[in-house]
Each structure stands twice: as structure tokens, then as C-alpha cells.
Design goal:
The protein has about 575 residues and is α+β, with helices and mostly antiparallel strands. Helices cover about 35% and strands about 20% of the residues. The strands form 3 sheets. It has a 9-stranded antiparallel beta sheet, with no helix packed on it. Helix 5 runs parallel beside helix 11, helix 6 crosses helix 11 and helix 9 runs parallel beside helix 11.
Length: about 575
């Protein structure tokens, strides 16, 4: 029966690895390896590879070409207004953001997050939007549905460049020349302490005919992962759409390139985001604004995801303003929840969201008291151990009974090794007489697995761990231990746990129980220190609890050392 228990455990363990791998693949926008779902219906690719999105189907005018400014309705060159200059860089700053605009289209081409140092160069800040040729990442907007101003049109800058002392807002404007009889005035409103930027597009009809343009907003990004990646864990990078109909839908760059991206195409709510580890950007229309969502490849390793909203007809001499918002910042869950419904989902916990969100809330509450994320992790694991104490006690109690019976079971196996049927019957009799359930040590542990997997994703996804110190040598809980002290301690405590567990009667199983911790410990040398601290704390508390329960049950703690001969 003990063999059956061990076999069941190994089957569950192997199947869990398979399921975790599949979920990890799906979480990162790839197809599941072992249990793939049906292939999605391929989305119709956009027309051409223009950086300007094509007009929606309801619009009759042709889409704007990808070139610079276009001729107006009379066929004459665009009317110049003030200092409309292509490719002049304008940099503005608040207390949390430093944005660089391009006067070509008034696009945001660079964004520094002033509260977040770069993890490779201490004297620099995180650069989310970027204008480098091989790492393009920008926020763009403009008009389509005719020869109207778009993100390729030179615009004139107006406003201050620095948030004044005591001021709460910084307002800058970009004004286009008249193109196609239409002038576009874009106003960015930056607020002190906020990563949300108000963006108002005012469309002015300076022509002699009514116009009905469409406003597009898009995030353009290269398809590479941010920074260096470790081979043992990964997070999703790519576009994501949120609507009330389908909630959070991730779209991989690979699916966009293959024309297989699937997401809700028409909505009146939600947002479009570009997601990467720790940080995100997102465009949001005002509530109840009907729009079309799109995602397409616009160049080699370059992708665009955005939204297109139709405007009401604008008579000659009239104007219409459309308010949007642009978020560019860290994935702080409590902050994201306050921006717009569902934006907190860019901090993606995948299939363990239902358990991860309350765990993050609890971790955040503990941090408000302790003020140190490292000690908050320790305290959270301690609270979880207390919450699961009786389940653990039952499991360790069952294991202690099994350990006490091991000499008798081993002798029985040796005596009846040539009579397997009789051996199984005798083992079942012993378990029945001693009131021992061979599965008693497994089931309570299985209940806790989703909780601890959820906590793993909380620690992996939380930007609060980035640059957060713990004690002494651990200066960044999101980076690997510089001296590998925590991984070594974790390996030693895992081996100590194995030594305290009852040794499997089968020699091969006994060897595997020692080899597996050593194999998996290799990964933890590359894991963030915060994750390793979580495992070390869990191991130490488990060893202490197991030791106490064994002594209470009259089973002296013994170390079952491996025999590889």
C-alpha cells in the first residue's frame, strides 16, 4: 500500500508539472504543448503594413497613407501654422514622469519612470516608451477616414515643459496644420503623482464641407522581451484587450504575425494595453464610447495594437472634442484598480487569479505594518502556515505513523517479496490494525498547492519587489541573491525535509526522493531573492512543525540518509 501511495504521489507530481508547463505556455501567449485547445479563427489582417490603421468598415474615405502631411481638400499643400516642425523632440517632466514627444504627430516616443531606477544602470531610470530603432515603443494617435491629420503630420508645440512647484497639473498642446480641411489640437494633461495622462483631441472643421473622421489611438512596440530573461521563468509580453464581454484577452506577437490573433473586435468599453514584466501602458476611451479594436504587424518585429472610434459629423466651422486617457507606469495593483475597471488584470496571475488577489491584498496590508517587503513575505508565509496548521498537522501525523511502521513494512516486503499479492494483503492488514491511512499525508498537502502556487505568482509579478531590500546582502528582492546564500539554504532545508520524511521501501523511489530536490534547486539559483525567501521560510516552518508533531506522537526525529550503493 505504501508503494501505491508513492506511485500516486509521483503520478500527481508528474501530471502537475505537465499542467503547469501548459499553463505557463498559455500564460506567455503560446499554445499549450500537451493539451492544446482548438485553433482560433484567424483574424483578417489589416490592409497593408502602414503604421496608420485603416479606416473602419463603415467609413467610405480611403485610409491615410503612411507618409508625412497630406494635401488638403482643395489639393493645395497643408497650411502652415506657427512652428509645426517634423521630428523636433520636446521633453516635459512631472515628479513621476519624464516624457519625450515628437512634433511629428505629437506622439509620446519616450517615457522615463522617475521613481524606478534602471536595474542595470543605477544612474538611469526605467525607460518604458523608447525611440531607439531596434526597440521602438510609442503611443500614437490621429485621424483617419479621409486626408486628415495623423501621427505622421508635423505639429506645433505649446505649453510649459516642467511641472511648477506647487502646481498640480502640467498642460501641453500640439496643433496640426489644416489637412483635408481639418485641424487637430491635441492637449496632454499631466498630473502630479499620477501615471495617467489626460489626452484631449479637438477636431476643428476649417473646410467648407462637413466631415466625419475617426479617431485612432495605438501602442506601437517591438516584439522582443524587455531586458534579460532567465530560462526558468517567464512573464507575458504583448498586447492585451479588455472588454465587458470577454474581460482580459492577451494577444501574442506571434499570433498577430500569423494572422491568428483573436480578441473582441467591437466594444463600447474597456482598454487596449501593452504589457511586460512589472510595467504597462494603456489607452482608454471615455466610458460608453463605441470603437473597434485592432492588432496588426506594421513592420519587421514591429506591432501595433489600438482602438478606432467614429466621430459624429462635424459641420463647417464647428468642432468636436474627444477625451481619452493614456496610462504609462508600474503595475501597482491598488493603483491600477483606481484607474479603470479591469486595468489591474495587466498584472497577470493567470489561472490562479482567484487565490492570488487576496494573497496580494494580505501581503500589502502586512507591508503597511512592517514597512519591509522581505519581512512581509516571511510574515505572510507564517500566517498561511497558521491557517493550514491542522491540515499540516494531519499530514505530518500520518507521515509520523508511517515512519514508525516503516521497519515492520520493510521486513514484510523482504519476507514476502516473491508473493506480491500476499504482501499487499498483509500491508493492508497492518495499516488497518494500526489505523494508518497511507494517503493521509498526501491529501492535506494537495489542498494547499494552489495557494502556494498563487503566492509564487504574486511575488513574481509584484513590481513592489523591484529594488526592495530585505536585510544585509539582499538589496533587491526581484533580483537573484548576489551571493547565492538563500538558494543554498533552500537546498539544505529541502534535503533536511526529505531526511525527516519516511523513506520509501522501494530503493529506486528512495533515490528519486533525494535526487529531485537537488535537480530543482538548480533553478532557484537564478530565481528572484523574494521567491527564494518565500520557499526558505516555508521549508523552515514545515521542518519545525514536522519535528514537533513527530515528538508529540512519540516518533523520535530520525534522518533517513540516502543509500546510493
Amino acid at each position: 500500500m505504501n508503494d501505491i501511495r508513492r506511485t500516486i504521489l509521483w503520478v500527481i507530481f508528474a501530471f502537475s508539472l505537465v499542467m503547469l508547463w501548459d499553463q505557463w505556455q498559455v500564460h506567455n501567449g503560446h499554445k499549450a504543448t500537451f493539451f492544446p485547445s482548438a485553433s482560433p479563427v484567424a483574424a483578417k489582417p489589416g490592409a497593408g503594413a502602414s503604421a496608420v490603421p485603416p479606416a473602419a468598415a463603415a467609413s467610405t474615405p480611403a485610409a491615410v497613407p503612411a507618409g508625412g502631411a497630406v494635401a488638403n481638400a482643395s489639393g493645395q499643400p497643408p497650411v502652415s501654422e506657427g512652428a509645426a516642425v517634423a521630428h523636433e523632440r520636446i521633453t516635459v517632466s512631472t515628479d513621476v514622469l519624464k516624457l519625450t514627444f515628437d512634433t511629428e504627430g505629437g506622439s509620446v516616443i519616450e517615457s522615463e519612470l522617475l521613481k524606478y531606477p534602471d536595474d542595470t544602470q543605477a544612474d538611469r531610470h526605467v525607460l518604458l516608451f523608447d525611440s531607439q530603432s531596434n526597440e521602438v515603443y510609442q503611443a500614437q494617435s490621429g485621424l483617419i477616414g479621409g486626408a486628415f491629420p495623423n501621427h505622421k503630420t508635423p505639429m506645433a508645440f505649446g505649453g510649459d515643459k516642467t511641472l511648477a512647484d506647487g502646481a498640480q497639473q502640467l498642460v501641453v498642446t500640439f496643433t496640426s496644420p489644416v489637412v483635408g480641411g481639418v485641424k487637430l489640437v491635441r492637449t496632454y494633461t499631466l498630473t502630479r503623482g499620477s501615471y495617467v495622462i489626460g489626452v484631449r483631441n479637438e477636431v476643428i472643421n476649417d473646410g467648407s464641407q462637413p466631415v466625419r473622421p475617426q479617431l485612432y489611438v495605438q501602442l506601437v512596440r517591438h516584439g522582443a522581451e524587455p531586458g534579460s530573461k532567465t530560462p526558468f521563468y517567464s512573464t507575458f509580453t504583448g498586447p492585451a484587450f479588455y472588454t465587458d464581454a470577454k474581460k482580459y484577452q492577451k494577444v501574442s506577437f506571434g499570433d498577430i504575425e500569423k494572422g491568428k490573433a483573436e480578441f473582441v473586435k467591437q466594444a463600447s468599453d474597456g482598454y487596449v494595453a501593452m504589457v511586460q514584466h512589472y510595467f504597462a501602458s494603456a489607452w482608454m476611451f471615455a466610458p460608453d464610447t463605441p470603437h473597434d479594436n485592432f492588432a496588426r504587424q506594421i513592420g519587421p518585429n514591429l506591432y501595433a495594437a489600438g482602438m478606432i472610434a467614429p466621430l459624429a459629423e462635424i459641420a463647417p466651422g464647428a468642432h468636436q472634442a474627444v477625451d481619452t486617457r493614456l496610462f504609462v507606469g508600474p503595475q501597482v495593483e491598488t493603483m491600477l484598480e483606481s484607474v479603470t475597471p479591469g486595468l489591474e488584470l495587466v498584472k497577470d496571475y493567470g489561472w490562479v487569479t482567484i487565490a492570488a488577489k487576496p494573497l496580494y491584498w494580505l501581503l500589502d496590508q502586512i507591508h503597511k505594518v512592517l514597512g519591509n517587503w522581505g519581512w512581509s513575505i516571511v510574515a505572510l508565509v507564517l500566517l498561511l502556515k497558521i491557517a493550514f496548521y491542522w491540515l499540516n498537522a494531519k499530514a505530518y501525523g500520518s507521515m509520523a505513523k508511517m515512519k514508525a511502521l516503516n521497519p515492520k513494512i520493510t521486513a514484510l516486503r523482504e519476507r514476502l517479496k516473491d508473493k506480491p499479492q500476499q504482501m499487499q494483503m498483509e500491508m493492508m492488514r497492518i495499516y488497518r490494525e494500526e489505523k494508518v491511512n497511507p494517503l493521509g499525508g498526501c491529501l492535506p498537502m494537495l489542498v494547499q498547492i494552489p495557494v502556494f502556487i498563487a503566492l509564487y505568482w504574486v511575488l513574481l509579478s509584484s513590481v513592489e519587489m523591484r529594488g526592495a531590500p530585505w536585510i544585509g546582502w539582499v538589496h533587491d528582492l526581484s533580483a537573484k541573491d548576489p551571493y547565492f546564500i538563500l538558494p543554498v539554504v533552500m537546498t539544505m532545508t529541502t534535503l533536511l525535509q526529505t531526511a525527516l520524511n519516511p523513506a520509501p521501501p522501494d530503493p529506486m523511489q528512495a533515490k528519486m526522493m533525494w535526487i529531485m530536490p537537488l535537480v530543482f534547486s538548480v533553478m532557484f539559483f537564478m530565481f528572484p531573492a523574494g521567491l527564494v525567501l518565500y520557499y526558505v521560510t516555508n521549508n523552515l516552518l514545515s521542518i519545525a512543525q514536522q519535528w514537533i508533531i513527530n515528538k508529540r506522537m512519540g516518533v523520535p526525529p530520525q534522518f533517513n540518509l540516502p543509500k546510493f550503493s
